[in-house]
Amino acid sequence: MTAQDDLSHETPAWSGDDLMQNPHGMEDKAQRVEAMFTSIARRYDLNNRLHSMWQDQIWRARAVKAAELAGNEDVVDVACGTGDLSMAFYKAKVRSVVGIDFTKAMLDLAIIKANNAAMSIDYRQGDAMALQLEDATADVVSIAFGIRNVQDPKKAFEEFYRILRPGGRLIVLEFSTPKNALLHWCNTLYTKRIMPLTATIISGDSSGAYKYLPKSVETFAEAKEMAVQIKSVGFAELAQAPQTFGVCTITTAVKR
Question: What is the pTM of this model?
Answer without folding.
Answer: 0.91
